[in-house]
Structures are given as structure tokens and as C-alpha cells.
Amino acid sequence: MEEIIKQAKSLASNVIIEAGNIAKERFDSLLTLEEKDDSGDVVTEVDYLAEEIILKELNRVFPDHSIHSEEAGYNGRKSDWLWQVDPLDGTNNFAIGLPVFSSSITLLYQNKPVLGVIYEPIVDRLYTSTLNEGAFCNEARLTIKKRENTKKFNVAWIQGHKVQHEERAVRLRQHIDLHCKRMIRLWAPTLQWCMLAKGQLDGIILYNSEGEDLYSGILMVKEAGGIVIDFQGNDFSGMSEEPYLIACHPDHKDYFLGLVESGLRRQPTIGNVTLEKITARFVGERGEQYAIKHVC
Prior knowledge:
By secondary structure, this protein is α+β, with helices and mostly antiparallel strands. It is 38% helix and 26% strand. The chain has 2 domains: 2-141, Fructose-1,6-Bisphosphatase, subunit A, domain 1 (Fructose-1,6-Bisphosphatase, Chain A, domain 1), CATH 3.30.540.10; 150-270, D-Maltodextrin-Binding Protein, domain 2, CATH 3.40.190. The chain contains 9 helices and 17 strands. The strands form 4 sheets. It has an 8-stranded mixed beta sheet, with helices on both faces. Strands 12-11-13-15-14 form a 5-stranded mixed beta sheet, sandwiched between helices. Strands 1-2 form a two-stranded antiparallel sheet. It is globular, with a radius of gyration of 21 Å.
């Protein structure tokens, strides 16, 4: 097992740089752009080109392994070893000329991540994490940081495309924005996980966002000394189709659990007035149907 992971790390580190350089070379140029679905998610020719480079090498060196890649899907092989590939995390940013994107490769053994490799080509940052061996950026060890003043927290928000307008998500997102120094949404989740691992963020709150870019980031944070838990406070390991997660320094666990719990209970507001009170006022003044039409 150790020998496979060692070989996999070398291969993934080399091929992800090759794929990332394709994105760097074609950044801010005319692209073929397609919408993937009604959620507004997009795919470009660079997604396909980078993916082809990565999959070719994975299939050559590990022909018996399972592979699931964002655009190509599942290769149909049954194996204890599973590769997850996001050839261009942050495609929407890439498509509009915003230089915030990366490539991500994860290797899982029996559904648990053992290797994560993330490459940020614009600034040539290669992030690697191996189970029980730590997390690194360009060979410098990463360590999650602990800040004492919670009012100065920078917190990242990650949310799935298909739940963008879910009422509970909107309520929680607004609550986080009001109770921290800055809430960050990069639309390139792997980079947010790396920022937390480097100590540049204080926490991540993830609302039902599962994909090929998730598990490399989770391993990166854990190997940097952070924790990843669900909204009930249970340690998160393995895989989930609908994850609701908190990632932070271990000493900040109770703070973030309280933040999420209070945010999910919070009434939606307009200004400083809850939507429930506004609706009740309109019901009293003009009737229930008017309130439903003009407020809800």
C-alpha cells in the first residue's frame, strides 16, 4: 500500500502540473464555453484538455484502479483504489478571466482519502497531502493556525450548485456574513481548503457540496492539524453524497458548531426585521393572499 501511494504521489504531482500549465497558457483567451445544466455551471475546452492529460497517465500506470473524473465520469472499474479528478476547479472563474482556479487529484483507498494533490498554476503552488505524513505547499509544511479573537475570523463558504437558493442555506450564509470579519466565496473550493491548511482562513462551512474537488481538500486540512466535522459535531471520514461540514482548528470546534446552529435557527430578515414579522403585518393589514404574493 505504501509503495502504491508513493508512486501515485509522484505521478499525480507531475501530471497535475502539466495539466495546470494548459490552463495557465489558455487563461484569459477566447474559449469554447458550454452550460452543463440549469444551475449555471459551465465547462470549457480546457476542462477537457486538462482532464485528458491526467486520465491518460492514470490509466497507463494504474490500469486496474477506479477513476471518477468531473467531465468523463466513472470508468466502470471495481477496485479498492479510487481516483477522483477535477481538471479545472473554478471553471466559472476561469471563464470570466478571474485567475482563481486549480486542478485537483485525490486517491482514496476503500473510500478514505490517502493522497491529495492540488495545483494552482497562476502562482505555481503545488499542494500535497499524504495520510499520516502531513500537508505541504511547494515542500513547505502547512499548519493550521489558531486565532483568539473570533470577531476577526475569516470564514469560507462552500455551497453546492443545486442548493444555491435553498432557504436554510441562504439563512445560514447571511448569519455567517454578519458574525465574522469576512465571509469568503472563491468558487474554487480546493483553494479555500488550502488557505485553511496554510492558516490564512479560520474555518470553512460547507453546505451540501460533494464532488471530485472535495476530498483532496479535506485531507489537506486534516494533515495540517485541522478537524473536519459534520453539523452535529461528529468527525467526518469516508464519503458522503450530501455533506454538511465544518472545518477548523480543533480548539474552535464549539464556536463553529454554535455559529452554525444559531444560523440555521435564525429567522430570515429584511433590514433588522424578521420576514415572519413583516408577513404577519401584511396579513393583518391586507390579508393573507396579498402577503403571500408581495412578501413571500
